[in-house]
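Sat 14:20. Reprocessing the chain from the morning session after the first attempt stalled halfway. Input below, unchanged.
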Amino acid sequence: MNLNLGEKTVLVTGAGQGLGRQIGLAFAAEGANVAFHYGSSADGAETAADEAVKLGVRAMAVRADLRDGAAVSSAVKEVKEHIGAIDILVNNAAVTQNKPFLETTEEDWEAQIDVTVAGTLRMTHAVAKQMVDHGGGAIVSLMGDSGRVGESRLLVTATTRSTTLGLTKSLAKELARYGIRANAVSIGLVQTASLGGHTGDADDERMAKILSAYPLRRLGVPDDVTPMVLLLASPLSSWTTGQVVSVNGGYSMP
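Finished this time. Tokens:
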């Protein structure tokens, strides 16, 4: 199926590694121009951009500390100047931590709040302004199922991720007049390098227990998630906004 993403310009946050990187490359494979945002994973973002260019699209790696509003605004302008005005924003960057709540400190909370919540707001604010100026766009935000159903040892992560629900639905209502759609994809555990941030140091017995919560009896892989992100970003979903779609192997069911 042609998703009509050719020549769209996409910015994916946290795209120097893991799921974000794969999402960016999936857009490139559909003919979209892609900006791979990173905070510290420069090598991953730059090699991903190189791979995307080989697919015949424009691509770049762009650094921004999501805790710094000026850096975020500068990155968004840089993307527009180098590969085009942003049509699609994928909010993927987040900080997670597997730790009993009573053992956490305010410093633990701040890192997650500053990136997952405030950082997402900063990036969305900057990109949405640009989208308004050129007639619309699509925003797809990733979140973990912990933000919908709760999760032991992921209380702070679940709290920050739950804000994606309110953000998505509010964006959909407020920005529709500008031709901007907003949707979210809520995921279960996906096997990437950051998996340990969700599972901690799980031994075989603990992993078996985790898998038993999934009716499909396996964790996800990036290719399980990317099709839904691309579909929601596509013009083929032009009458879909304000929705939270679960891609989670059956872990939780709305």
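The beta strands are 9-12, 33-38, 59-63, 88-91, 137-144, 180-187, 244-247.
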